[in-house]
Amino acid sequence: MNNTKNEIPSLKILHTSDLHFLGDDDENNTVENKFPIIVDAAEKLDVDLLILAGDIFDTHRAPVEQVHELIDQINIMNKPCIILPGNHDGRIFDQVPDEKIGNNLFMIREESGEIFKIPSLDLSIWGKPTYKHTPEFKPLEGIPKRPASKWFIVVAHGLVLDSPHFADRSSLIHYEELQNADCDYIALGHVDVFKEVTQGKSKAYYCGAPWGPVTPPTIAIVSLYDEENIKVEPITVPLSP
């Protein structure tokens, strides 16, 4: 089924990753300077959900004030937001106290994987944080049986094994795992370019990175119309006024 201009998606998602706040390549890459670009895009594109698929910070030693600034900005957005720690984040989000987490913020922190349900969107989301960036860690291992929600999304931070040169790398994702995943969309982080890696019935994409030494810098907008009609497109930020 092809969508027409008049169709409205049932669910619209802004998928981003690899923001690398406080990265060495950009001394101005702080939460207060750069995250408003993502907030502005989420508002202008009228998305229902924001996914941060890992490596939000460049180092797990980022000042706690920067972590809290990110949480504050997400809470002010008043849109559901999923955070999955990547290999650069480590356990940095463990320092966020429960009382600082608003009703719209869902942080995937369980080492073995964790599922959240967002009833307002008829959505379930599962992910597993990349705490141990080793060859033994498998980001898609342990995906649960598809829940009863209309939509089921998986978030992962790792490297799809689509080249023999990657065979000894860490946090690998195998084609078979992508083929067997029973979900609607797999939101990936770790690769800084927009890229489709779909292998089965579940759409799977890297969103790219919104800034930094990438060409072109992108986020991904995911429009879900029905299970057979899911559109994923790269968007460059900041958006034009």
Describe the 3D structure.
The protein is an alpha/beta fold. It has one domain: Metallo-dependent phosphatases (Purple Acid Phosphatase, chain A, domain 2, 4-Layer Sandwich). It is built from three helices and 14 strands. It has a six-stranded mixed β-sheet, with helices on one face. Strands 5-6-7-10-12-11 form a six-stranded mixed β-sheet, with no helix packed on it. Strands 8-9 form a two-stranded parallel sheet. Helix 1 links the parallel strand 1 and strand 2. The radius of gyration is 17 Å and the shape is globular. The N terminus is likely disordered.
TL;DR of this structure?
By secondary structure, the protein is an alpha/beta fold. Helices cover 14% and strands 27% of the residues.
Q: What topology emerges from the helices and strands here?
A:
Layout: E1 11-16, H1 31-44, E2 49-52, H2 64-77, E3 81-83, E4 105-107, E5 114-118, E6 123-127, E7 151-157, E8 159-160, E9 172-173, H3 175-180, E10 185-189, E11 194-196, E12 203-207, E13 219-226, E14 229-235
Parallel strand pairs: 1-2, 2-3, 3-4, 6-7, 7-10, 8-9, 10-12
Antiparallel strand pairs: 1-13, 5-6, 11-12, 13-14
Helix pairs in contact: 1-2
Key traits:
241 residues; alpha/beta; Purple Acid Phosphatase, chain A, domain 2; 6-stranded mixed β-sheet; globular
What is the distance, rounded to the nearest whole angstrom, between the alpha carbons of the first and last residues?
32 Å
Run of helices and strands: EHEHEEEEEEEHEEEEE
Q: Which residue ranges are poorly predicted, with pLDDT under 50 across at least 5 consecutive positions?
A: 1-6
Under the CATH scheme, the architecture is 4-Layer Sandwich
CATH homologous superfamily caption: Metallo-dependent phosphatases
Query: What is the mean predicted local confidence, pLDDT?
Result: 93
Order of strands, main sheet, comes to: 4-3-2-1-13-14
| Number of helical regions | 3
Q: What CATH first level would be assigned? A: Alpha Beta
How many strands appear in the DSSP assignment? 14
Provide the β-strand percentage band: 25-35%
Q: What is the CATH topology?
A: Purple Acid Phosphatase, chain A, domain 2
Structural class: alpha/beta
Mind describing the biggest β-sheet? Answer: 6 strands, mixed
The general outline is globular
